Amino acid sequence: MSFESLGLSEALLKAISKKGYTTPSPIQQKAIPAVLERKDVLASAQTGTGKTAGFTLPMLHLLSQGQQLRHRPVRALVLTPTRELAAQVFANVKEYGEFLDLRSAVIFGGVNQKPQVAQLRQGVDILVATPGRLIDLHSQGVLSLSKIEILVLDEADRMLDMGFLRDIERIMKMMPSRRQNLMFSATFSKEIKRLANGILHHPVQVEATPENTTVDAISQKVYRVAKGLKTGLIIKLISEGDWKQVLVFARTKHGANKLCKKMISAGISAAAIHGNKSQGARTKALAGFKSGSIRVLVATDIAARGLDIPLLPHVVNFELPNISEDYVHRIGRTGRAGASGEAISLVSADETTYLRDIEKLVGEKIPVEIVEGFEPDPNASTEPIKQGQGRQNSRPRNSNSNNSSRSGNRNNRRPNRNNDKRSDSRRR
Ligand code: AMP
Fold first, then answer.
1. Which of 88, 94, 138, 354 could form a disulfide with 320 if both were Cys (CB 3.0 to 4.6 A apart)?
2. Where are the domains of the chain?
3. Ligand 1: distance of its center to the CA of 48 in Å?
């Protein structure tokens, strides 16, 4: 299938070929025609599948064909859970829309609102936003959503995880009820299905990869290792393997910082990216990592969510996530757009239960290796690490989220953050 056969305009085809894409990805093949037919869409897709172009291209097509009002009210809104994802979607909108007469803007918290306000005042067709800043600016009367024709909820599952349900509900009330709705989510919990039922009308359902299965191109490996030897082992793997670009996941901000310092002491250029870092620091770290001046990016789950790092060869779980689905998100960073990748997990005794739950979720046993000199501690307890005891990512249950009705193993429960719901700065 070609992009031409999807019925996209010449201006979009030109931008697509400038990007170097030749064939639409599976999610694009399914989502683009449905969106062009003005249908609501519920798409199961994680980052790396080409989902952003899957909604951006047809959205731009429809907007460019539609009636252009002189004062340019916002006609399309893309809501994202994190600033980084907002910035990336915005960059995509700019690139794909290069040859169209449409204006776009991005708004998120953590930065001065003045330039955002100035831009909104000039008129914007497409707005990419995180919920907190959007509500702030709306309540200040700076923007109106009364002319919205298309709404996109990107990474809806993560928005719920981050406690944005109430904000989403508020935002829905700011928009006309007659509009086209597109919802993208990597996972489909009961909460997501409920949200979808409330927002979408007879949606076309599209799926990029089967839910919760691991991308085939990724080779996975577990190193069983004593907890205290993990830092030594990861440094050895990176140095001896001469890995040039490694994304490392740590469970906490503190852990990410500590590991980053140790890497630097060992002569490996590294940067940490997490919710305590300023927007400037995060952007700089990501740019350094993409350009190759930083070899190792140590990230927490939420900070890394949605980062567009193409063709990532190595992902390392320095610690396994206590939410099994996060494992799938993490390793989805490698093997993007058809390239092969390697996902490695350093697993100590206390993570045994997490590993078992992850294997259950992905439906396969992950091969195990032990490196001489970095053996696991045979006397260590296999009791899981207690979440929320002195750890920075203790995530209180959200009383709004109906979590109490959930059963099953603890790792598949998706805790919500219920603190500081309005700001965008609650990342791990
Ligand atoms: P996304 O899932 O939207 O984060 O996109 C993942 C990566 O795939 C990005 O780097 C895109 O630029 C790239 N991409 C998107 N669509 C295509 C395509 N049709 N062909 C090749 N690469 C693509």
1. 354
2. 4-207, 214-369
3. 6
C-alpha torsion sign, points 151, 157, 159, 163: positive
What pLDDT digit, counting tens, does each position of 217-236 carry? 678 999 999 999 999 999 99
Extract the tokens encoding 110. Answer: 């953590």
Query: In the prediction, which pLDDT does 424 show?
Result: 40
Q: Kindly report the protein residue whose alpha carbon is nearest to atom 6 of ligand 1.
A: 48
Please give the distance of CA 12 from its chain centroid, rounded to a whole number. 25
pLDDT in tens, 174-196: 999 999 999 999 877 888 889 99
Sheet holding 218-224, edge to edge: 270-273, 296-299, 246-249, 314-317, 341-347, 218-224, 368-369
Specify the pTM.
Answer: 0.61
Q: Is 305 in the pocket of ligand 1 (CB under 6 A)?
A: no
Does the beta carbon of 50 lie inside 6 Å of ligand 1?
yes
pLDDT of 37-92, one tens digit each? Answer: 999 999 988 777 889 999 999 999 999 998 877 889 999 999 999 988 999 999 99
> Of all protein residues, whose CA lies closest to atom 18 belonging to ligand 1?
21
Domain 4-207 homologous superfamily, CATH: P-loop containing nucleotide triphosphate hydrolases (3.40.50.300)
Rg (CA), the chain: 22
First-residue to last-residue Cα distance in the chain? 41
Pocket lining: 308 vs ligand 1, CB cutoff 6 Å: yes
- The rounded distance, in Å, linking the Cα atoms of 274 and 8 is 38
The residue with tokens 């070929």 is: 17
| Residue 49 Cα to ligand 1 middle (Å) | 6
Nearest to 361 by CA among 330, 334, 395: 330
CB 204 within 8 A of CB 41: yes
Which whole-number Å values give the CA distances from 148 to 76, 142, 181, 248, 306, in the listed order?
5, 15, 10, 39, 25
Ligand 1, residue 46: give the atom nearest the CA. Answer: 2
Mutating to test ligand 1, I would choose from 22, 25, 49, 82 the residue with most ligand atoms within 8 A of its C-beta, which is: 25
Give the architecture-level CATH label for domain 214-369: 3-Layer(aba) Sandwich (3.40)
Q: Confirm if 245 and 313 have CB atoms less than 8 A apart.
A: yes
Check for a shared fold between 4-207 and 214-369.
Answer: yes
Decide if 49 contacts 99 (C-beta within 8 A).
no
Closest residue to atom 10 of ligand 1, CA basis = 310
